Amino acid sequence: MKWLSNVFMKRSNWSIPYFIFLLVFVVLPLVLIFLYAFQDAEGNFTLKNFSKFISSPEAANTFVYSIGVAIVTTVLCILLGYPAAYILSNSELCRSKVTVVLFILPMWINILVRTLATVALFDFMKLPLGEGALIFGMVYNFLPFMIYPIYNTMQKMDHSYIEAAQDLGASPMKVFTKVVAPLSMPGVMSGVMMVFMPTISTFAIAELLTMNNIKLFGTTIQENINNGMWNYGAALSLIMLVIIFATNLFSDEEEQAANEGII
Predict the structure, then answer these.
(1) CB-count exposure of residue 1 (10 Å: 0-12, 13-18, 19+)
(2) CB 118: neighbour CB atoms within 10 A?
């Protein structure tokens, strides 16, 4: 009992459950993806899984198309989310917690329920399901993930920079372009990360809003895993992880450049 009490008294030991969780549910799956990606069905080392992706026009076209859909969705989310976050962070009326909760309320509902509601909406308005419905559903589902990071960054922004620019005679447009926009870039990059990558990897939204007529990269991964092609599916997943890593590096560089621009 004394040994047990000593374990719980040491604060660093409280991190052990989280370490075990990360090891089992994050590190181990990543290691398995890496191992499966470089193996064939017999467990031998091979690069055929990656060459198959490069030589397969369908998979490559799906990958390029998914990136295009992700870019369009991300740009639309920025165009809609940035003004909303700016208004929320500056208006006294919109600073109330109730207003902020109303903007992020869709995040509390399961993404499949929101997508099914979108399908019902298009059916009610007698609009065809397809690429337009896919873009609409993507923006609708991921817009809160763009608004909240930008809003959170703007809320923590040091307004003395804005006041200093105003005291120096800068116009409102100049204040926004030279001070507010660069300072809000970390929130924008966080929003881009939270919208861009899930858009590429999702498959349920595309299946429901296009009647499975349009495939995204996530759909290709899911189909290969369901059909027992674990090695090829793991290779596609590894390609996705490399893109996520590269996007993280790019976002870090952009954030650093924005901070240097302010300084």
Answers:
(1) exposed
(2) 21
Identify the residue whose tokens are 């008294």: 9
- Count of other CB atoms within 10 angstroms of residue 246: 10
Length reported for the chain: 263
Q: Which of 195, 177, 190, 217 is nearest to 138 (CA)?
A: 195
Q: How far is CA 141 from the centre of its chain?
A: 11
- Do the beta carbons of residue 182 and residue 257 sit within 8 Å? no
pLDDT at 102 over 80: no
pLDDT digits (tens, 9 = 90+) for 169-192: 888 888 888 888 888 988 998 898
Predicted TM-score (pTM) of this structure: 0.82
Q: How far apart are the first and last CA of the chain?
A: 56
Residues 6+ apart with CB under 8 A from 190: 149, 150, 153, 251
Q: Pinpoint the alpha helices (H) of the chain.
A: 2-9, 16-22, 28-37, 48-55, 57-90, 97-104, 111-124, 131-155, 159-167, 172-175, 181-201, 204-209, 217-226, 230-262
Rounded Cα gap, residues 14 and 207, in angstroms: 42
pLDDT by residue (tens digit) across 125-169? 999 998 999 999 999 999 989 998 998 898 888 878 888 888 888
